Amino acid sequence: MSNLPVVVAIDGQAGTGKSSVSRLLAGELGVPFLNTGVYFRLAALVKARSGCAIGDLAAELVRHDLEADGDTGAIDGARVEGALRSPEVTRLLPVVAADAPVREVILALERSWVEEAGSAVVEGRDIGTVAFPLAWPKFFLVARDEVRVSRRPEEGERVLARDRHDTAREAAPLQAAADAIVIDTSDMAMGEVVERMLLVIGAAERR
Prior knowledge:
Blueprint: E1 7-12, H1 18-29, E2 33-35, H2 37-50, H3 57-61, E3 66-69, E4 72-75, E5 78-79, H4 81-84, H5 87-97, H6 100-117, E6 120-124, H7 127-131, E7 138-142, H8 145-151, H9 158-168, E8 181-184, H10 190-205
Parallel strand pairs: 1-6, 1-7, 2-6, 7-8
Antiparallel strand pairs: 3-4, 4-5
Helix pairs in contact: 1-10, 2-5
């Protein structure tokens, strides 16, 4: 496709297929894919390793080189794929994500990544509301609770608890942007979701 949007923003609840859809869509468009949740997992891993207080984490993060690459990343050049999904990192994730100074550090990393990429599919939980509010198109994925839990059997009900926490947090709460297109993926294959997005992007290109 020509005249691609700079950022295709994909937000939404856990267990809605955001990462799978974002990866597939990026492949269809021939652009890079960024899962911004990787940055927060990297931050949680830095906290776990350093033992610093949450109030000191933002300052600790700027001492390190955090790299996100699709669904994985590196700290100071060392790949940390397995550690990013550890129970400790997952446990710390909501606390880290709720800290406003940490979010500011990560926001700068996200914007720098996109500036270097030029055009990208960016997935997260505040992409259309905070990180790239001028992005278009914006998508927000939802699904029925029982479907989301079934898609994340290793996490179970914690999937729903995390969303409740992120929706209520003061810093960049999980919510759909006013101009986001909401897609319920409960009864859709990931390929169907991507096809719907491609139709919207095609229409955006002709605007």
